[in-house]
Design a protein that fits this description.
The protein has 261 residues and is α+β, with helices and mostly antiparallel strands. The chain has four helices and ten strands; from the N terminus they run ββββαβαββαβββα. The protein has one domain: GHMP Kinase, N-terminal domain (Ribosomal Protein S5, domain 2, 2-Layer Sandwich), CATH 3.30.230. The strands form two sheets. A five-stranded mixed sheet has the order 1-2-3-5-4. Strands 6, 7, 8, 9 and 10 form a five-stranded antiparallel sheet that branches. The longest helix has 49 residues. The structure holds cytidine-5'-diphosphate (CDP). The site of cytidine-5'-diphosphate has 13 residues, from helix 2 and helix 3.
Length: 261
C-alpha cells in the first residue's frame, strides 16, 4: 500500500511566485537547529531539527561487543541503528525494524566509518543509535549529519566531521534539500555525504532521471549546501564548549565571592 496515495500529491511543486510550496528558493535549505550533549546517559549525543524532521543520536563506545562473535581482533567496529518511531510518519509505521531501516543504518555506517580510527580499538564497538521522532524527507542525510556530531561529542577521535544533503529535481528544476512531499512527488532525488578531511563523497544514491549537465548542477548545489551544514555542525560543537566555559567561569567567580565572605 502506498504511503500517500499518488492522487494526493500536489499537482505543482512551485507556487505562482516561483517559490517552492514551503516558501523556499531552489537553493535554500530548510531551517536547521543542532545541539550536542543532550542525552546524559550516552557517551555523546546530538539533537537535530531539520525542517519538520526531529532526530536524536546517541553514541556509546568504545565498549565490549555484543554479541561477541561480531568482534574483530584487529579493529573496532561501528554499528548504526537507525529507527523510525511509529508516530514519526503520516501512516503508522510498524514498530519492528524494517528493510528500509536496515538499509539506512548500513548507509549511515558506511558514511561515517572512513572518518574513524577503528584500527586503534581492536575487539571493541562504537554504537550509534538514531531515533527519528518526526520525519519529513531527507532523514538519511539528517541522520548522517547528526550521528557525526554525536560521535564528535563523545570525544571519539575523528579525521573530520561528515555532512550530508539531498538534492533533487522537482517540476523540472534542480533543488536542494527535498521535503517529504518533494521527495515523493518529484522527479529525482540524490542524497550525498562528504568526509571533510579528504573532501571525498562517502554516499551517493540516486533515484530518478537526469542528464550529465544536470548531474553537474546537482553536485554544485550539493557542495554549496554541504559547506553551510558543516559550518552549522562546527557551531553546534563550539557552542557546547562556550557554555561549559561560561559555567566554569561563573562557578569560579562564585567560589571567590564565597571565600571573601
Ligand atoms: O528520509 P529519506 O528521504 O532519507 O528516505 P526515504 O526512504 O526516501 O523516505 C522519504 C520520506 O518518506 C521520509 O523522510 C518520511 O517522511 C517518509 N516515510 C514515510 O512516510 N513512511 C515510511 N514508512 C518511511 C518513510
Amino acid at each position: 500500500m502506498p504511503l500517500i496515495i499518488k492522487d494526493e500529491y500536489p499537482e505543482k511543486l512551485f507556487r505562482e511566485d516561483g517559490k517552492r510550496l514551503d516558501g523556499r528558493d531552489t537553493d535554500e535549505l530548510r531551517p536547521i537547529k543542532m545541539e550536542v550533549g543532550i542525552i546524559k546517559n550516552a557517551d555523546g549525543s546530538a539533537y537535530l531539527e531539520w525542517g519538520n524532521n526531529k532526530i536524536f543520536a546517541a553514541v556509546y563506545g568504545p565498549r565490549e561487543v555484543h554479541p561477541h562473535h561480531l568482534a574483530k581482533p584487529d579493529r573496532g567496529i561501528l554499528r548504526v541503528f537507525y529507527r523510525m518511531a511509529t508516530y514519526s510518519v503520516f501512516d503508522r509505521k510498524r514498530p519492528a525494524p524494517g528493510r528500509r531501516e536496515k538499509e539506512i543504518s548500513m548507509i549511515v555506517a558506511d558514511c561515517l566509518e572512513p572518518v574513524l580510527f577503528l584500527e586503534l580499538y581492536p575487539g571493541t564497538s562504537f554504537e550509534v543509535f538514531i531515533e527519528i521522532i518526526d520525519a519529513d524527507g531527507g532523514t538519511r542525510c539528517a541522520s548522517t549529519t547528526v550521528a557525526a556530531l554525536a560521535l564528535a561529542d563523545a570525544g571519539v577521535p575523528m579525521k573530520s566531521l561528515v555532512s550530508a544533503i539531498a538534492v533533487g529535481k522537482i517540476d523540472g528544476k534542480i533543488v536542494v534539500d527535498l521535503s517529504g512531499v518533494e521527495d515523493k512527488a518529484g522527479e529525482a532525488d540524490l542524497p550525498c555525504a562528504i568526509t571533510w578531511y579528504n573532501e571525498e563523497i562517502s554516499l551517493l544514491q540516486f533515484d530518478g532521471n537526469m542528464d550529465l549537465d544536470e548531474m553537474n548542477e546537482f553536485m554544485d548545489l550539493a557542495t554549496k549546501s554541504l559547506k553551510e551544514i558543516h559550518q552549522m555542525q562546527l557551531d553546534a560543537l563550539k557552542s557546547k564548549y562556550i557554555t561549559l566555559k561560561e559555567e566554569e567561569t561563573k562557578e569560579k567567580e562564585e567560589e571567590v565571592k564565597e571565600g571573601e565572605k
